[in-house]
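User: Please predict the structure of the protein below. I'd like the answer in structure-token form so I can feed it into my own downstream comparison script.

Assistant: Understood. Taking the following sequence of 187 residues as input:
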Amino acid sequence: MEISSFQSYLIILFVVLVIISIFVFKQFLKTRKDELNLVKFEQQGLDSLTQASELYEFGSIQIKKRLYSEASKTFSKAVEYYGNEPEEAKAIIENALGFSYAAQNEFKKAIKHYNSAIKSFPKYTVALNNLASAQQRLLEYDLAYATYKKVLVIDPSNKTAIKKSKELEKRNDYAPYKGINDKGFDK
């Protein structure tokens, strides 16, 4: 049995559609799970949650749904309850709180929480990258550059720090064009 080019085209198209359908279905299930968890936590109410891990999970879902102000409240409550958690868990919660503030363009608050995360876990490169990004948004380019360099000391292959430090190096080396008077423009 010989397969024509049209039949092979249909077979390839069918296989591609099946693969796409699998990915779409997986994404649907993941989104559905997040929605159900969000509803569950909202029904329980923020006041009934007293474990930092539950609050972190709730806040993470809120961030995925771009509910940043609600996530800030949730993570703030998690900070109140994380007393017995390991230092790494405290750093993750503080970083998430900083991220929720940064998403609302409250960079000074974000920096405060990123610094708390770094104090709890000094080699936490995600928090260091987030701190540098917030510093950059506040036009503190020298601080941001130094922070990215700290990341590169800890993790020399960190793609974010490599890319952003190169961008800042180009920015710091920038000098306005001085030859404008040579082109017939007088002041």
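That's the full token string. The mean pLDDT is 86.
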